[in-house]
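Internal tracking record. Fields below are filled automatically when a chain is submitted to the structure queue. Please do not edit lines marked as system-generated. If the sequence contains nonstandard residues, flag them in the REMARKS field before resubmitting.
Queue: standard
Priority: normal
Entity type: single polypeptide chain
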Amino acid sequence: MTTLQAVFEKARAEDRAALVGYLPAGFPTKDGAIAAATAMVEAGCDVIEIGLPYSDPLMDGPTIQDAVHRSLTNGTRIADVLRTVEGVARTGAATLVMTYWNPVDRYGAERFARDLASAGGAGTITPDLTPEEAGAWIEASGAAGIDTVFLVAPSSTDDRIAKVAACCTGFVYAASLMGVTGARESVSAAAEGLVKRTRSHTELPVCVGLGVGTGAQAAEVAAYADGVIVGSAFIRRLLDAPDEASGLAALRELARELAGGVRR
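SYSTEM-GENERATED OUTPUT FOLLOWS
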């Protein structure tokens, strides 16, 4: 397993931000998700977030909702998510699971943390789990040796940022805007201020997600953040591709563009 700490140390040594790519398990197919994530790593992604498909994705915009719907239609289950993590972790990229809390709660927190660690997973991102309710998950993750990542937003008060950051061990996920996921023409101006405020409460890396879809936007965010998170733009390349080979080629092209952006 490649740890998040190792990824960010390497990125700092190279004077750049880390590139984090998101893709749901089971999309475009169960095996296709592993192939797609592998292509993203080979073209420059340092970290891969594997989404656990869920029927009520609160923060996901229409592009990710479409992909997740296809994944669920494909019959993707937690066992498939863990198999995807195992396949992607073999590439050497730090591999996370991004999941809403309900599936983990139903599966069992200790069991999920243990099984994720066994699959080579480096940790989780849990967007709807609040610090007040996170005690059991933090304990289970610590026992399994995996990292926890929680979210802050432009609306977060300094007190709230401090509470969220205290729950994180891998990095802090700074949502660039108030809204759902999706590539946009520009990255919210609130993102840089949020990163600065978050850094006043933690020594952990701070990564920015929501809205990034081009190399130029990645370069803009990399100028002030430790990591750049991209999801919908990758998924859109697969959704628009006429076949699997074309989709993989489009993913590699975008990953190379973004990897160039975080190195400017």
